[in-house]
Amino acid sequence: MNLASLDLNLVVALRALLEERNVTRAGRRIGLSQPAMSAALARLRRHFDDDLLARVGGHYELTALGQVLLDRTSTAYDLLERLFSSQADFDPAVEKREFTLLASDYAVTVFGTELARVVHEEAPGIRLRFTQTPPTVVEDTATLLSATDGLLMPHGVISDFPATDLYDDRWVFVVADDHPGIGDRLTRKDLARLPWVTYQRTYDAPAVRQLGMLGIEPRVEVSVDSFQLLPLLVAGTRRIALVQERLARSLAPLAPVRVLEPPYEAVPLREALWWHPVHTHDAAHIWLRETAARVGSRLAGSPQA
Question: Which of 29, 160, 177, 184 has its CA 20 to 30 A from that of 242?
Answer without folding.
Answer: 160
